[in-house]
Amino acid sequence: MDLAFTKMEGIGNDFVIIDDRKQKLERTGSYSDLSIKLCNRRFGIGADGLIVVLTSSSCDIKFRIFNSDGSEAQMCGNGIRCLARYAYEEGMIEKTEFTVETLAGVKIPKLNLDDQGRILSVTVDMGQPVLEARDIPFHPSQHGALVQTIDTEKGPVSFTAVSMGNPHAVIFVGDASKAPVTETGPVVEIHPAFPEKTNVEFIEVLSNSELRMRVWERGSGVTLACGTGACAAVVAAILNNKTDNTVIVHLDGGDLTITWDRESGHVFKTGPARTVYHGLIRI
Fold it and tell me: Catalytic pick from 39, 82, 226, 231?
């Protein structure tokens, strides 16, 4: 069977996107197994994750995302920007602002166009951050404290826990370039305090309007960018009185602009999404 796909990236966070609105693939196999196969960088297409486009009974379109290890994530900030561009350019959606069904609830991307109708960037209403430990989910060792500490085989780790529809542990560091991403990231990801595992962000505060971020993503390892992680990082920075409400987050793959609108409580994320190529692969 030949499978049509599109390879896309959002500031270096790359995805294989497939259209399964007729559910042919869902009837013939597992999205999880397909993700492992397609995302393999030596024997497959190569990507951080697989995005599946489906029909929705409640929204304009439905989004499912699977990490490169086959696990399904609730949401992906960079992935949903790619989905928005893909759906618009493939004629699935004619509106520049529309609703997307995800496991993390309804998300609303908006395509920002130039005078000639070309897509400049995508802004996504990511909804309200979740800060209640039981809803992240996270089992705190102490109550009422914003910054939590857990014991790991690499020593104690302090962080702020936030969910943007998926769990995050935001660790503030003095120098992001020297952060122990590949050492601390994996042990925090699978720590028992996070029953659904967690993404781990290492954040250097550059100013009250700029952050430098590196990330260990749940189910994928080190990636060049994480959109929900950037949102969680800004929420954590604001809660810890480190930044203003609008922040540019510098990631290894590029920059995102994050605004936490305190009146509505919603977090808005703006950044690029780019089509790399279209192709066919035999599965």
Answer: 226
Question: Model confidence over 169-215: pLDDT tens digits?
Answer: 999 999 999 999 999 999 999 999 999 999 999 999 999 999 999 99
On whether both 28 and 122 belong to a single domain, the answer is: yes
231 is annotated as an active-site residue: no
DSSP, res 32: H
> What dihedral do alpha carbons 152, 70, 169, 255 form, nearest 10°?
130
Q: Using a cut of 0.70, tell me whether the model's pTM lies above it.
A: yes
pLDDT tens digits for range 72-110: 999 999 999 999 999 999 999 999 999 999 999 999 999
Q: What is the CATH number of the domain that holds 174?
A: 3.10.310.10
In contact, 137 and 162? CB cutoff 8 Å: no
Q: Give the active site residue among 39, 76, 82, 231.
A: 76
User: In total, how many domains does the chain have?
Assistant: 2
Whether 39 is a known active-site residue: answer: no
Domain span at residue 54 reads 2-127+271-282
